[in-house]
Amino acid sequence: MMRVCKFLMVLLCLIGFWWELPANADDRKQLSILHLPSDPISFQPGPGSDLASRYCLMCHSAEYVYMQPPHPREEWTEIVEKMKTSFGCPISNEDMAPLADYLVSQNSLQPSPSAPHVQADDQKETPGRSPTQSGDPQQGKSLYERHCLTCHGPGGKGDGPIGPVLVPPAANLTLLGKQSDKTILDALRKGRPGTAMPAWEYDLNPQELNHLLSFLRTLTP
After folding, report:
1. What is the pTM assigned to this prediction?
2. Rg of the chain's alpha carbons, rounded to an integer?
3. What share of the chain is helix, strand, coil (3-state, %, to 5)?
4. Is the per-residue pLDDT at 112 higher than 70?
5. CA–CA separation, 62 vs 66, rounded Å?
6. What is d(CA 62, CA 117) in angstroms, rounded to the nearest whole number?
7. Looking at residue 173, what is its pLDDT?
8. From 120's CA, which of 9, 32, 191, 203 has a CA 20 to 30 Å away?
């Protein structure tokens, strides 16, 4: 979904650029540079950033928030309420105020593009061990409940609060048994083009992805 939106943004920019293109070649030298969309960014650290990653990334990228003009707290509160009542975001009543506070704190920030997490020496795979073996399924379960449950459901069947209404619906993760570790990790890192599945390489480090993979393996019958 994120890549489709970016493609449309680029297409609109190019159409606007061509429409305004001067006929005189000398005038073309005065044209300002066309700025294309930046690389993906993630929500900046701070109280409530985990809530923004959990709930906002279901429908749009973090970039969408940072493209907004500064909003007072009352307006951010209305936006969060609209997420819940109009778009079906499964945000709890207790999380609504902290999320609004976090969004207010991001009003004046212009974050730099995110870089994928660098794998530290103590996070590198142990020779002879697969990512599944080097991950901890219990830590992976906590990550799953924080980031994946709302779409994929408690048992991974794609029956989370918003999973069935996504286009296409959230994947049934209990069917991953025949997929290789590399295939699953690639999907976790890069997301799935044409779906609501985001890229997690900007929010989870390599070891956390291994933990998550290890838990996903427990969902297969």
Report:
1. 0.55
2. 20
3. 55, 0, 45
4. no
5. 7
6. 17
7. 94
8. 191
Which parts of the chain fold into alpha helices (H)? 2-19, 25-28, 49-55, 62-66, 73-85, 93-105, 131-134, 137-147, 149-152, 181-190, 206-218
- Mean of the per-residue pLDDT values of the chain: 76
Residue 130: per-residue pLDDT: 63
In terms of Cα–Cα distance, which of 141, 181, 174 is closest to 159? 174
- Residue of 107, 109, 111, 110 lying closest to 72 (CA atoms): 107
Query: Angle formed by the axes of helices 206-218 and 181-190, to 10°?
Result: 120
Quick count: other Cβ atoms within 10 Å of Cβ 69?
6
Tokens at 107, concatenated: 């009003």
52 contacts 62 by C-beta, under 8 angstroms: yes
Give tens-digit pLDDT for 144-203.
998 898 889 999 999 988 888 888 888 999 998 888 999 999 999 988 888 888 888 878
Token duo for residue 139: 């830590």
221 vs 113, higher pLDDT = 221
Q: Among 135, 136, 216, which Cα is nearest to 179's?
A: 216
